[in-house]
């Protein structure tokens, strides 16, 4: 393999591993902040126990997310120097803002939250975790706006062989980036909801601290149902953006080979041009792709054959990634709805099979999120900046295959070790359950902050 393929593989490896931690951080920060707010508002010690228990798991996950995220940015200089030189004026701006605004904000206030128990007032302590949650979500905003620019470049000119920014507001209000942010953010909320529901289901099956985990499950189920609905709605708008601005990717997502009006959806996976869905005969739903793409059942869909072969994305991973992402999304929506219904009825313990399913469903939103990134990034190929710069032109010129092999090996060993540590710690403390003795935390602060 050449340096381009190896560098792509390395970046995929590190980014997909990093993405294991990010979505849980996004959602669990919100849930932890809500639980602490309920404690401050009601004085109910059950919410304090919930804050401490889920907050501990949040901190474990947060620490690993920070470590794995730092290494990704170094790769722009190590493996993708030509990319950095070509678009650094644009791509570097949102990343710099993310570091100076969001990362420092969350770093300061997460320290205050960790060490501020019984040292600052309850209200101030709750504000600290809300600021951590805000900063974490702001961090995702700037990174996804940068990625959105790569998907749909706006507000730039090509000058002196480089892309230079001429309109920063165009990057900020880029519809593609904003929809990507909304879709990604809400998918992270689903991850956190299923994480909390799955662990709660584990303890409910064992009749361990039933009231604690029934309340945790209900909060997560409502949060997860709302997030699942938003994922679907924002995902629909995102698909329209893809169809409009990345027609080759959209054609690969649906395996549309011939340009056609009223394109139908193949129910079974089709990866060649011999089985177009253009009638009511066969395993297909007529006109559904056109309807989903442009909200017009007779809209024209540009087929893969309309693009040069060297500008067509890999069809099979894009198609399968999209189909299974939708499948898992639908399943999670149904499970979250069932969770809300059973919680509202107070009958969770009467459905042991459902609780078992929820426990083993914890990985499902993680997998769906990874599939979404495969669709987004593999489907963009051969472009690293869509329509502007190809991936083959962006790799560092001075790097050798041996160097990339060595760094891949190093990252694999390092990340493998971190992954083992993370799974061990999360499993250990999740199975242990919440602490019973919270007396030290109930002492009043020395003074109001």
Descriptive overview:
The chain has 449 residues and is mainly α. The protein has one domain (3-259, 302-436). Helix content is 70%, strand content 5%. The chain is built from 13 helices and eight strands. It has helices spanning 3-42, 45-78, 81-115, 122-151, 168-172, 175-205, 210-245, 247-254, 288-294, 315-345, 352-360, 363-378, 401-432, and strands at residues 156-159, 162-165, 260-261, 265-266, 284-285, 300-301, 383-385, 389-390. The strands form four sheets. A two-stranded antiparallel ribbon has the order 1-2. Strands 3-6 form a two-stranded antiparallel ribbon. A hairpin with a 3-residue loop joins strand 7 (383-385) and strand 8 (389-390). The longest helix is centred in the first third of the chain and has 40 residues, at 3-42. Residues 444-449 have low confidence and may be disordered.
Q: What brief labels describe this structure?
A:
449 residues, mainly alpha, two-stranded antiparallel sheet, two-stranded antiparallel ribbon, 13 helices, 70% helix, disordered C terminus
Give the domain tally. Answer: 1
Give unreliable regions as ranges.
Answer: 444-449
Strand content: under 5%
* Residue share in helix: 55-70%
Order of helix and strand elements from N to C terminus: HHHHEEHHHHEEEHEHHHEEH
> Number of helical segments?
13
Order of strands in the sheet with most strands:
1-2
- Rounded to an integer in angstroms, the radius of gyration calculated over CA atoms is 23 Å
Q: How far apart lie the N and C ends?
A: 59 Å
Structural class per helix/strand content?
mainly alpha
Shape: globular
